[in-house]
Write a structure and sequence with these properties.
alpha/beta; 485 residues; succinate-semialdehyde dehydrogenase (NAD+) activity; 20 strands; binds glutaric acid; globular; 38% helix; Aldehyde_DH_Superfamily; 21% strand; single chain; 14 helices; 2 domains; Aldehyde Dehydrogenase, Chain A, domain 1; binds NADPH dihydro-nicotinamide-adenine-dinucleotide phosphate
Length: 485
């Protein structure tokens, strides 16, 4: 088990590692063992304000660097992250709980955002518009928006940070970052890497501390021009309302309620394997993970048998064990949420066909058995609210249109998945699903080179892809008069 010294200086402002001004600290817990692994600085609006000041001062010089200069620093961060992959993965698992193999995959994915935006920095092209007036030349120039406030969650403590920082820095923005209190050490390590590769002081600032006072400061600060957030829809709404006075730009990656639809012409082994991966990866704490599965009636029994067999083989364990497939949830509230959704469903007539309780293993942490539910109905909370845990309801359907209607019957619109071997059906259904991301015979759509983001109440904007960098720029339109001769 990785043991850490006390990290009382986890606040990074203007190139200095600091304690909180009032000396406050917050314990960080291992969710598998419940040990306190270290204490981190716990700042508030004082540090939040200092961080914005540093970022504002650094903006002019950073945005004036050439794209190539910024790109080189991002590329160096990519290389350094991979160099330290094992250490980073171990820290991530210790504070977040996910199995080491998943933590390693997350570090690869997190580093890939530095690589992708090191490349995209050099391709942030503007446009020349053919003018309808021969005495004018029209152009559009992308310019960095300014200071960006990034607020990130604990479920992907590395990739949710780099997915925001890399495009922001590539575009020429400076950043103030508040990570989740459950996973500040991964954030600390990423900022350390940026410091080590030579990011100028003030360009990236880290404030670990109280969300409400830091959030208030950043929402009310005129110098913060964009808030980029990943987390619950509830907090996303709060940030939207709070940013209204200054008309800030927002990029929000919020909750989801992803359906998987398995059609009778699907490869059932693949569909069962992918359903398992989608639901139980990160113990069900992924915003794009399956929250409900619709299975065509004719293959219901076969699919259920295959899936149950695979779930039975999952090894629940402390994430640090190489053989672990499923680790703990993040905290007691997360366990309680799973329990509430389960009890509500059972009370309304659902049946548990596998799992159904806290894991009775050798560790005191927040473990819950992977659980399968059938006889579910639309009235149950699990069919409407994001569970963020290892609880999977399955429901049969007869016709394609019925499955599409049920899949779309939600205020969320992040990711949806289809399993079918018919290209006709795949395309037809994909077009009708009201989601920002569609997986066809695939449940791993999140990659640096593609635009990730939801519709409806799942958010605003895109992260990743060539689109992701445009969240961090303003498009300046220039109309230029030209004399004939
Ligand atoms: N889309 C996704 O990837 C995620 C979705 N969720 C969903 O949200 C549920 C609750 O999880 P939770 O961790 O509480 O998610 P939150 O949305 O509360 O937290 C996400 C981040 O926002 C911060 N935050 C919370 N309140 C404010 C505020 N008023 N101003 C500024 N920042 C704020 C948090 O800090 P702090 O914790 O210090 O309050 C954290 O850094 C989950 O069960 C899941 O359904 C959660 C995480 C990620
Ligand atoms: O939960 C998320 O917001 C991102 C998923 C990242 C991944 O699939 O690697």
């Amino acid at each position: 088990m990785t043991k850490f010294p006390n990290y009382t200086k986890t606040i990074f402002i203007d190139g200095q590692w600091l304690e909180a001004h009032n000396g406050n600290t917050l314990p960080v817990q291992n969710p598998a063992t419940l040990e306190t692994i270290t204490e981190v600085s716990y700042g508030d609006e004082v540090e939040a304000e200092q961080a914005v000041r540093a970022a504002s001062q650094a903006f002019r010089k950073w945005s004036a660097k050439t794209a190539r200069e910024r790109s080189q620093l991002l590329y160096a961060a990519y290389e350094k992250m991979l160099e330290h992959k094992e250490e980073l993965a171990s820290i991530l698992t210790t504070e977040q709980g996910k199995p080491l193999k998943e933590a390693r995959a997350e570090i690869d994915s997190a580093a890939s955002y530095f690589l992708w935006y090191a490349e995209e920095a050099n391709r942030l092209y503007g446009e020349i518009i053919p003018s309808s007036n021969k005495h004018k030349r029209l152009m559009v120039i992308p310019q960095p928006i300014g200071v960006v406030a990034a607020i990130t969650p604990w479920n992907f403590p590395a990739s949710m940070i780099t997915r925001k920082l890399a495009p922001a820095l590539a575009a020429g923005c400076t950043v103030v970052l508040k990570p989740a209190p459950e996973t500040p050490l991964t954030a600390y390590q990423i900022v350390k890497i940026l410091e080590e590769v030579g990011i100028p002081k003030g360009v990236v600032n880290l404030v670990t501390g109280d969300a409400v006072s830091i959030g208030q400061c950043w929402m009310n600060h005129p110098d913060v021009r964009l808030i980029t957030f990943t987390g619950s829809t509830e907090v996303g709404r709060l940030l939207m309302k709070g940013s209204a006075d200054h008309v800030k730009k927002l990029s929000l990656e919020l909750g989801g309620h992803a359906p998987i639809i398995v059609f009778d012409d699907a490869d059932l082994d693949l569909a069962a394997e992918m359903t398992l991966a989608s639901k139980f990866r990160n113990c069900g704490q992924t915003c794009i993970c399956a929250n409900r599965v619709y299975v065509q009636k004719t293959i219901w029994d076969d699919f259920l048998e295959k899936l149950t067999e695979k779930v039975r083989r999952l090894s629940i364990d402390i994430g640090a064990k190489e053989t672990a497939d499923i680790g703990p949830l993040i905290n007691e509230e997360a366990v309680q949420k799973v329990q509430r959704h389960l009890e509500d469903a059972v009370q309304k007539g659902a049946s548990v066909i596998y799992g159904g309780k806290r894991w009775d293993g050798p560790y005191p942490g927040y473990f819950f058995e992977p659980t399968l539910l059938v006889n579910v109905t639309k009235e149950m909370r699990v069919m409407n609210e994001e569970t963020f845990g290892p609880l999977l309801p399955l429901q049969p359907f007869e016709e394609e249109e019925e499955a599409i209607r049920q899949a779309n019957d939600t205020p969320y619109g992040l990711a949806a998945y289809i399993f079918t071997d018919s290209i006709h059906r795949a395309y037809r259904v994909m077009e009708k699903l009201e989601y920002g991301i569609i997986g066809i015979n695939d449940v791993f759509p999140a990659v640096a080179e593609a635009p990730f983001g939801g519709v409806k109440q799942s958010g605003l904007g895109k992260e990743g892809g060539k689109e992701g960098i445009f969240e961090f720029v303003e498009l300046k339109y220039v109309s230029m008069g030209i004399r004939s001769s």
